[in-house]
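INTERNAL AUDIT FORM
Audit reference: QA-55
Scope: verify that the stored structure record matches its stored sequence.
Auditor: D.O.
Record contents follow.
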Amino acid sequence: MKEVYGEQCLARCIKFRWCQRYEAGRVNIKVMPRPGQAHVLTNSATISVVDELIRQNRRITTREVAVELSISKGTVHHIIHKKLGYGKGCAQWVPKHLSENQKTARWELDPSATQEFLH
């Protein structure tokens, strides 16, 4: 199998596990739900509401956002850091990566400040 498919070939143990499940009566190939805590989906509406709250108050905490939206702090943290790309700077939320327009505006405001980083 590895000669034909290379490194993308499935391991033998996975194939055997699939065969055992098929013989046990499973015919659905989709992932079955597992017991445990349900995960809240981070949809675009929630992300936009979190972004709006941060834009209104840059000093808002993840706990305050979580209480206001009735979602977990972990979900708020994931949205803020992974989806929106914010980080804390001087107790305020700031974008981690500047857009090209923001970089240009910063350069026009004070070109001498950025010269020290070019050397």
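Auditor finding: record pair retrieved intact. The longest helix spans residues 44-56.
Action required: none
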